[in-house]
Amino acid sequence: MTDKDLQAREKVEVTTEAESTRNVPVYVPAVDIYESQDALVVVADMPGVSPDNVTLDVHDNTLTLRGTVSLEEAKGRAHVQEYGVGDYSRQFTLGRTIDQSKIEAAMKNGVLTLTLPKTDVSKPRKISVKAS
To answer: Which of helix, strand or coil describes residue 77?
Structure first.
C-alpha cells in the first residue's frame, strides 16, 4: 500500500450557471468505472441519498445522475463541521457502444451502481474460419 492509497479525497462542489431551487451545495460524486466484456459499470458514492431521491436521465447521449439529500434540522450550533451535506450531480457522455435502452441502476447504503450494457456490435467476438 502506498501513501496515495491512504489519502482522503475532498468533496468538490459544482458551480453551475443555473439557479437552484434548493439552498444546499451540490457536489460531484466520486465514481469508479469498470469495464467488462459486456458492460461498463459506474459506481458513484452519494452518502445520505436514498434510492427514492435518485434521478437518472439520458438525453442526447448524455447520462445525468442526480441525488437529493434529505436535510435534517441542526440539533444545536455547530462548532466544527468537516463534512458538507448537499445534493449530488454528475454527467457522462455516452458513446455509441452503450445500449442506452438497457441501462440499469441499483442503490445500496449511499452507493449508486449503474450498469451500462454494450451493444452487440461493440462486444468482442471470435469469428470462426470455415475450411472450403
So the answer is: coil
Q: What is the pTM of this model?
A: 0.76
By CB atoms closer than 10 A (0-12, 13-18, 19+), residue 55 is exposed
* CA end-to-end span of the chain: 56
- Look up cell 468482442; give the residue: 124
Q: How far is CA 110 from the centre of its chain?
A: 11
pLDDT along the chain (132 residues), means of 10: 51 65 84 93 94 94 92 75 83 92 94 93 75 80
Query: What CATH number does the domain containing 94 carry?
Result: 2.60.40.790
- The number of C-alpha atoms within 13 Å of 24 and in the hemisphere containing its C-beta is 15
C-alpha cell at position 49: 441519498
109 located within any domain: yes
Residues 66 and 52: their CA atoms lie apart, in Å, by 11
Give the Cβ contact number of residue 47 at 10 Å: 15
Number of domains composing the chain: 1
